[in-house]
Amino acid sequence: MKNVLIIGSTGQIGSDLTMKLRREIPEGAIVAGYIPGFEPKGELLESGPAEVVNVCDGKQIAEAVKKYKVDTIYNLAALLSATAEKFPLKAWDIQMNGLINILEVARENGCAVFTPSSIGAFGPSTPHVNTPQDTIQRPKSIYGVTKVATELLSDYYFFKYAVDTRSVRFPGLISYTTLPGGGTTDYAVEIYYAALKGEEFVCPVAAGTYMDMMYMPDALRAAVEIMQADPSKLKHRNSFNIASMSFDPEEIAAAIRKYVPSLKLRYEIDPVRQHIADSWPDKMDDSCAREEWGWAPSYDLDSMTQDMLRHLGEKLGK
Ligand code: SER
Question: Which tens digit of pLDDT belongs to each residue from 70-128?
Fold first, then answer.
């Protein structure tokens, strides 16, 4: 991995991943792909090349790949689960037509491709506790439908055309650089902002709703390590369960109150998010990722909370 195109570089994952790759691969071109209206700013803009690359425009993808001799594409353009329920056709267009555009460019130009899957690739009939790597995947949300199809299409391009596709099923991701938008797990980011701003947190999912979550530094390491893994050891490709922590709103609130005792929590359930959350795993089994490429998380709820509060506090001037 040397010259990398990150599609969706100004989103929650992309903004942090682009900067990490620029730090770790200074000799490479780490290209921040973005769409008008979501331009890179500040450090992201100043520290490397940026190009308009709309995932729905195969020609734009091909031009950027050729211009920078790209060997790896991170495909991070997506509508998250709750937003996708509002705009299912748009979600399909970005997630599926976007993916096939990327896979075709990758096939013609010999690129490796990472397209994240998610806990959303599972559904109500999936075992919710210690969700196995290989199990029932019958999600009910359009987000989940596109994630299952993404996994299948990525594997298809590997088996049929030897395109080096690999990925992980991300839990809900918690970070302080860029807010997620329109996901079911967003509450676990927003609660930190509320705590530091001294605002009451209005939680859209109910107490007792458990979901896998992960701190962004672990997620980024997974996204890089899976692409650097020895391919001869991979029995799976698209996509690996990865896990680090599982909690409900009460548990994350208690973890934050250890450092911000004044945090107040009230529930106003969003039926769309609750329905989606109830269909997702409580806790995934990530033993295949551990065995096949040495995955291991570094953060638990307490160490993440300390780090989040410190960085977010600096950002918010608190
Ligand atoms: N974080 C995503 C969402 O909530 C799931 O992958 O939609």
Answer: 999 999 999 999 999 999 999 999 999 999 999 999 999 999 999 999 999 999 999 99
Q: Give the residue whose CA is nearest to atom 1 of ligand 1.
A: 172
Contacts of 8 (CB under 8 A, 6+ apart): 14, 33, 34, 55, 74, 75, 76, 77, 78
| Sequential DSSP letters for 86-117 | H-HHHHHIIIIIHHHHHHHHHHHHT-EEE--E
Q: List, as one string, the DSSP characters of 144-195.
A: HHHHHHHHHHHHHHHHHH---EE-EEE-EEE-SSS---S-SSTHHHHHHHHH
**Which residues lie across from 5 on neighbouring strands?**
31, 73
pLDDT bracket for residue 224 (50, 70, 90) = very high
**306, 307, 309, 315 alpha-carbon torsion, rounded to 10°:** 160
Ligand 1 atom nearest the C-alpha of 280 is 5
39 neighbors 45 (Cβ within 8 angstroms): yes
Residues tagged active-site? 143
Strand 245-247 relative to strand 211-215, pairing: antiparallel
Q: Find the mean pLDDT for residues 40-58.
A: 97
Q: Which atom of ligand 1 is nearest to the CA of 170?
A: 6
Please check the confidence at residue 204 and state whether its pLDDT lies above 90. Answer: yes
Per-residue tokens: 246: 């599982």
pTM exceeds cut of 0.90: yes
